[in-house]
Amino acid sequence: MTTVITFGTFDVFHIGHLNILERARALGDKLIVGVSSDALNMRKKGRWPIYRENDRVQIIAGLKCVDEVFLEESLEEKMTYIRQHKAAILVMGDDWQGRFDGCSALCEVVYLERTPSISTTSIIEVVKYL
Ligand code: C2G
Questions:
Q1: What is the DSSP letter of 46?
Q2: pLDDT band for position 4 (cuts 50, 70, 90)
Q3: Rounded to 5 degrees, what are φ and ψ at 33?
Q4: CA of 83 to the centre of ligand 1 (A)
Q5: What dotted CATH number matches 3-128?
Q6: What digits encode the pLDDT tens for the residues 56-111?
Q7: Opening angle at CA 55, ends 51 and 58, nearest 5
């Protein structure tokens, strides 16, 4: 049984989010997703997410490719989460390239290419000016 773990805010869920989750799941037998808490997103990006954390958790938990979801409270706790969930592979989008290489002491670290031309920020900008 190969457990894969990945992390993200997944605010205003879009096709780039689904693509990375499906590709992450295909690397193993079980996919666990750490959804960034509202407070973590505020610290990370300087704004509150559009969707509150409980809704984001529920959306991710409802996906066919996801087996388990938990709230990620800190960026620096990756090693703890990997240990807790006995993950064999950590998947991150390549916007985080190199950033979590330290985790390779515990598991394989894989950076997957982002889906081009879509992001939560660009969706917010488009909606704002409609
Ligand atoms: N993503 C993607 N293609 C896009 C947009 C996002 O593959 N066009 C991926 C990101 O690379 C990330 C995941 O979707 O792996 C979630 O994206 P975000 O919600 O933007 O995640 P982020 O806020 O970067 O959180 O601990 C790490 C962080 O929690 C990652």
A1: S
A2: very high
A3: -120, 125
A4: 21
A5: 3.40.50.620
A6: 999 999 999 999 999 999 999 999 999 999 999 999 999 999 999 999 999 999 99
A7: 145
The reported pLDDT for the residue numbered 130 is 85
Which residue pairs from 93-96 have beta carbons closer than 8 angstroms and sit at least 24 positions apart in sequence?
A: 93/8, 93/20
Write b or e for each residue in 65-92: b if 16 or more Cβ atoms lie within 10 A of its Cβ, otherwise e.
Answer: ebbebbebeeeeebeebbeebebbbbbb
* 92 CA: nearest ligand 1 atom: 15
Q: How many whole angstroms from 44 Cα to the centroid of ligand 1?
A: 12
| Model confidence, pTM | 0.97
- Give the residue whose CA is nearest to atom 7 of ligand 1: 114
CA separation for the pair 104, 79 (Å, rounded): 9
The candidate with the shortest Cα–Cα distance to 67, out of 108, 114, 109, 34, is 34
**Residue 75 CB less than 6 A away from ligand 1:** yes
| Rounded to 5°, angle at Cα 58 from 53 and 63 | 130
- Token pair listed for 96: 């985080």
